[in-house]
Amino acid sequence: MRDRKVATRYAEALLRSAKRAGVLDGVAESYASLREMQIGRSDLRTFLDSPQVRTQEKKELLHKVFDGRLEPLLLNFISLLLDKNRIENFRDIGEEFAHLVEQERGVMRARVTTAIALPADLEQQLQARLGALTGKTMILEKRVDPAVIGGVKVVMEDKILDGTVRTNLDLLRKTLEKAPVR
Amino acid sequence: MEFVTPNLTNLLTTAVGFILFVWVLAKFAWGPILTLLDQRRDAIQGDYAAAEKNLEEAEQLRGEFESKLHDIKVIEREKVQEAVKRGEGLAASIVAKANEDAVQKVAKAEEDIELETQQAQLVLRDSVVAMAIGAAEKVIGERLDDQLHRRLIQEYIDSIGPGSAPHA
Questions:
Q1: CB pairs under 8 A between A and B
Q2: Nearest residue of A to residue B126 by CA position?
Q3: Are residues A148 and A115 in contact, defined by beta-carbon separation less than 8 angstroms?
Q4: A133 and A145 fall within a common domain
Q5: What is the pLDDT of residues B28-57, one digit of tens each?
Q6: Same domain, A115 and A162
Q7: Do the strands A107-114 and A137-144 form a parallel or antiparallel pair, or are they unpaired?
């Protein structure tokens, strides 16, 4: 069961521990590679999620495979998740943790939607402008959607900067639809 | 011509016979005849009195009958007048109700017409808006080449600044 509050709580705890131990970068990198691996390999996910395999066996196998390859703090964290029966939230916690790490590093993601592929020079300009606006290092997640007709739509965290032709036409339509008939 | 000379004997005999006849008659027949006549007279008088009495009673009955007839006519007239009044009242209330219904129906019809007119105008307006927006969308879509796309994106980027939000 996906539970955002649980994921946020664990991710914050992991962030605090990693920062205290001074291994934030290592933990972030390890978590990212583990997430990729776990997403890519369904047998690993099945093994970790399986109620038939005892927790102790899961821990032992994890240590056998990943000792020396992953940050020990992260391995301990995974053991904690297994003990607390929260291993099914591993992916959500990872997403939340990555988000928190980005915030920690002053990085912000913005989803940019355009009708045509965003030209490289304009992408750089947009990145710089958004960076100046937010005071953070921007990572643009580009998306092409012909339905917007033209212009740009940027979604970052809870803010939407919508300058698409589609939205302007919708606004125009709404304005006209509110016009009195007499 | 020969005259007849009265014979005294005959005269006396006839006279005596007549007297005897009158006496016998008075002695034996006169009383019963008179009694009979009296009885007859009394009977006739009784009948007459009875007829008079009957006549009086008939007159009295006629008076009573006429009085009752008059009363009946008065009552009938009152009843008719009452029925007429009631009928008039009923007719007036029916007319008033019908008028009220008619006024309500007219008001309702006017309201319905107004509502339908407004709805039709709204539908028409929305249709016109949809057509206009659709046409605008088509024209813009057809006219937007790479250069115009670039220009739109550039204008968007230029509009971003502290405190600015093109469409938040």
A1: 90
A2: A177
A3: yes
A4: yes
A5: 888 888 899 999 999 999 999 999 999 999
A6: yes
A7: parallel
